[in-house]
């Protein structure tokens, strides 16, 4: 049995399509998708449409990530839009009803049980508590490829398709092959045309309004360096220098502007 494992697409349809050019050249039996398909690059509908097509081509196990959870939180129309959450709200507004309903159907985790192979536990965030009778645990969230073993269980993170943060902007995924008692884990790093994603971000609301989150995402796509995280950390640092102790979503826009200037995010 051969699984293609993907995670953390974050709206980057260009990286996703390039990944599947490679995947479809390989003899794949099933697909595992570990969450965070949307937000950031403003192509949420295209990504969800593509994943739904994939489900019609391959047996596919798909769970939701924290970004899907956050988007669904806006189903409550009374929820306040926080300054550092505009990216989530813009994604929610852009989704078709059909794709929103599809996201609602996704489970938080899943146990894969196939004949003649060990059980596989799939979650978005690394989980040490559940699926203890599984041989493999598949997870994403960190945007970095990782393999390790703990208590007889092998943990596999395929890295990020859309926003890798390991200093290498190439898209990342992995292939897990299980045959009898043998396993092979292949980690892939593939170049793609990220200029298209960067162009989308230049023209997006999240790069023009509010905290201009899209500019940090654009720099991440180009470099593979986690500028969004650096941006958030710099905001907190500058606020403390001014003696401001409050949650990020309550900070004045001037603090965010200063943080971008400090990191040369433009």
Could you characterize the architecture of this molecule?
Helix content is 37%, strand content 20%. Helix 3 (66-72) packs across helix 4 (86-94) and helix 9 crosses helix 10. It is globular and about 60 Å long. It has two domains: 2-190, Metallo-dependent phosphatases (Purple Acid Phosphatase, chain A, domain 2), CATH 3.60.21; 204-263, no CATH class. It contains ten helices and ten strands. A hairpin with a 2-residue loop joins strand 7 (145-150) and strand 8. The chain is an alpha/beta fold. The strands form two sheets. The protein has a five-stranded mixed beta sheet. It has a five-stranded mixed beta sheet with strand order 4-5-6-8-7, with no helix packed on it.
Q: Brief overview, please?
A:
With 266 residues, the protein is an alpha/beta fold. It contains 10 helices and 10 strands.
Q: What are the key terms here?
A:
266 residues; alpha/beta; Purple Acid Phosphatase, chain A, domain 2; 2 domains; five-stranded mixed beta sheet; 10 helices; 10 strands; globular
Please write out the topology.
Blueprint: E1 2-6, H1 13-23, E2 30-33, H2 44-57, E3 60-62, H3 66-72, H4 86-94, H5 97-104, E4 109-112, E5 120-123, E6 136-138, E7 145-150, E8 153-158, E9 171-179, E10 182-190, H6 195-202, H7 205-208, H8 213-223, H9 227-241, H10 253-263
Parallel strand pairs: 1-2, 2-3, 5-6, 6-8
Antiparallel strand pairs: 1-9, 4-5, 7-8, 9-10
Helix pairs in contact: 3-4, 6-8, 9-10
